[in-house]
Amino acid sequence: MKVLASVYACSPYDGSERAVGWNWLKELNKYHEITALTCHVYKNDIEDYLAKNPGEMVHTQFVYIDVPHTSWHVGYRLERLYYMLWQKQAVKIAKELLKKDRYDLVHHITYVTCILPTEMYKLGIPFLYGPVSGGENIPSVIGYPMSVKSRITEFIRTGAQYFFRATPNFARTMQNATLILTTTEETKSIIPRKYHGKIEVFQSIGLSEEIFYPEPLPKPERTPSFLMAGRMLYWKGFEMGITAFVKALETGFKGELVVLGDTEDNPAYEAYKEYLKKLSGKYYDHEIKFVSKVEHSKMKNFYDEFDVLINCSLRDSGCFVVMEAMSRGLPVIVVNTGGPKVNTTSNSAVKVEPAPMQQMVNQISDAIIDLGVNKGKRERMGKAAREHAFGTFLLEKRTEKMCDYYKLVASLKGKSQ
Fold first, then answer.
1. pLDDT digits over 171-187, tens only?
2. Cβ(90)–Cβ(117) under 8 Å?
3. Which of 37, 203, 247, 293 has its C-alpha lying 20 to 30 A from 25's C-alpha?
4. What's residue 417's pLDDT?
């Protein structure tokens, strides 16, 4: 198929949104002829990669788009405003491309959010929208402790959700999309119910096969070792997980917890990490230890040092760390919301439902003790986690599913309503 792709963020040398855009193009390039509209700031990265890897991406043509009179856009300054202007410029260029060539569909890939506008619905060809996130929020029932600054952040974020959902662009995007892919049930829920018949829940991220091999070795007899990992952000739920682990230790439970927390040299994240160390009390630097950073190339072996992953993220749309840990055969303890809810099963994870925080702390603590003392259960759940990860998370399998969506969207020309 000939595909026109809107991939604002796209880099082979970066993570987050840029990696999502690049990884989808790299996989879809194997099956389709793609014209990728991307932001001009990624040109150097992309052209450097293509020069070093001339046999790759041979079916993808990149169109680098800048917005006139936007010299103020340096780094990520006023990024959302620039993105909205970029979309308007991109659709103009896309219309010119359509005058010269025929495309089977247009696919919006990045940004992976439905609370920033896309203009691709205006092209009059079958339109695949997503996967997109944007509906994930910290469940209010938890009453999660946050600083004033964090509460303001959440308030602004929720306000932005309501604002963009009320815009004509949001309504027209949903109306004109042939198929909508949302990363989570939470994002699906913020889209008007009349469009739910054309929504599929489908994650935007996947794993390469290399993380699965070599297979992890059997775990030795040892004190059970638990891992929490992620950026030092309040909504990642570190406070809940550490509080639960301390509670387990207070019962006499013998276990170890390593907290891998990247502060990204951000003073606010550094301060939060220091707070978590104090929260660990007398167990800090004994049963509970902190690690600042592990090179991504070494993460596979790092996961193998542990028996269980604890992930208390409260509004993650995907959560790579859960997927990667499962691929290495770790059972997981998760809050049953967002991406972890979609990506885990009841036989591979202890899924703690959102509830008042103390209730959740008690349940997580009980799960820590249960998995800590029951090696056989850990092994069964770990095996199920690895099998689920291999059958569900592989980029190759996700790409095959996306190709199926392409066929469906192309076959529904003129039936987006």
1. 999 999 999 999 999 99
2. no
3. 293
4. 46
